[in-house]
Amino acid sequence: MNPSELLDCVTSVSCLVTQTTTGLIIGALLFLVAAGLTLIFGVLGVVNFAHGSLYMLGAYLALTVFRATDSFLAAALGAGLGVALFAVVFERLFMRRVYGTDVLMQLLVCYAFILILDDVVKIVWGGEFLSMGMPEAFQSPPFFVGGGVVPVFYLFLMVVAVAIALLLWWVLGYTKIGKIVRAAAQNATMTSALGINTNLVYAGVFACGGLLAGLAGALAAPVRSMSPGMGFSILIESFIVTVIGGMGSVSGALVGALLIGLVRSFGSIGFPLFVEGAMFAAMVLILVLKPSGLLGREPRP
Amino acid sequence: MNGNEVREQGRRKLIKGAGAAVALAGIGAPAIVRGQNKPIRIAMPTILSGRVATLGLSSRNAVMMEVERINAAGGLAGRPIEMVIRDSKGQPQEAARVARELMNSEGCEILLDAEASSGGFAVHEVARDLGVLCIHTNSETSSLTADPKLHSPLVFRCARQGIHDSIVGGAYAAQVAREKKLSKWMTCSPDYAYGRDTTAEFIQYLKHFHKDAEITGEVWPKLFQPDYSEVITRLIQGKPQAIYSCLWGGDLSSFIDQGNIYAMFKDRQFFAVNMADYTVLTKVKNVPENLHSGTRYLRSFPNTPTNNAWGDAYFKRFGELPTNWSWQNAAAMEFLAQAAAKAQSTDPKKLAETLAGLTIDSHFGQNGKLTLRESDHTLVDYAAGWGVLTNKEPYMSNPVPGDWKQIAELEAEWKKSKGFA
Fold it and tell me: What predicted TM-score, i.e. pTM, was given to this entire model?
């Protein structure tokens, strides 16, 4: 424990800027993955354990498109849309058969896909780790704000995450599509009785979750090496985020992701050997004090 | 019974005996010939799946290349080699199980342990328990052969050692530190036994050669951590003049990519012992300036025609460049071939007696020779150096070779300090 270093950091502008932006950066990427996970759970009541694999698929698709086009925009769009398409196929052919079944059955289907996708990645892209490298547009020196360092690419990443958070908030809260999604989440049978094709809603939600995971993979590709199985670690962190924020709550995912990001960032200064532990401790604390999560709905009696 | 009958019986016995002898010779001689030409099966547990699979596959590739060459030249003392290679998935218990099964049930006579350190120690115990000839080819943990409690007359290590690399790295880093007036250091290594031990040994020898070196902070990211943002900003806050790291593979690649966007390497020296391996060198797009590394395997170090040719032949055959694990496994096979030729036998005990202290000509040697040191059955005199890296061939223009006399002296002191000698 280094409490004095932590105190020095929060009283120094440069350290405060660097660590805060770092926390927001970590949180931004986590939010993109966790938002898809929590959206699928909120509407379909299914915990998509294969969500990390969708993130991995996004990273690899982005690499392929980037190598072919040399455009990061095309890579991000290709990855997002490609994974969304895959998610629809995954939902229509497999996941829909296990809705309402035992959670163990859902886990088995997802786990099978984790293994299959890992092997597919090995066959298509090889077992070695791969690296995309930073696109030329982002190879500029970082900004210095109050002596703190803010990398250009991470600034872009934060802008994308904020834009997506706002878009989700607007679509889910203020549009007809959002109303239908919320209705399907509340009572799918009644929504169906009103003449709404709930199958389409489910497929659409899965596609949206896949799009977010694929996009997150694409945004991570320039700075994180890719290897089969890379989705596992982000899946664990995303679960922590969704549990802290509240399962099914997109705004909760945002709060949870930023909280985890800041714990990691300032924890590396104040308690460097307990950063991982601190994340789990925060999760346990919230589960004890508010079992439904920070912004999760209390289960109806 | 008269005398004639006795002589007659004696003659019959003689004829029968001679006949039997001729018959036995007819049956037995080919059996002996067949025994000499019977393939010798060598067990090889290694990591063929999971995150470290690249290294295991590169070990297998190198071994198969050498086996073809040795078999074409007549095999091990006339016996063709047949490799039995199994995947341990990087799990020590699986490595031990596979090794035991191959030796007990698959008719293998020699154990080539191509496991990383964790699996290597498990296989080591199997080899000692079964009393079989074993060569470790990938474990770099020094105690495996330095600790006399672990010694076995039939077990050898044909791989670089952490303590050797630390001495060479410490001497090189101290020289750079003196030239560039570096005193404030921070370290960033993976948080497990290899990362902790290797970093501690590097610091020990850095301070040994440069008394002014001061470690102002340490960060220990998890193994396979995807995001290093908080680690990088912690390093930036510490304002060190130099950073040491023994991150490796994809972790090192991610760390450099993420460090670059924070401009962490600007005006700062970075010492990454595991960078000069083609698996990383060919992946990192923007190699920072002032990046120093130990020579894991470079076809340009030693820059000899035979080493260049071996690297090129490997590339031609497998479409990728060899790794540090590749050369170690290739060297182990060459040691076996030369020991068998010298002993004129494949008997494990005779081979072990010949291997102990054996020196062979090899392009992997610092000066064209490799030795399996008699006292502790470990490899010495291999190419070990450090230098500044660039992002294109030959990647390291002016490597500084380690001094094997100095390594031996300091290693002996280290052994004493650890109670190993």
Answer: 0.83
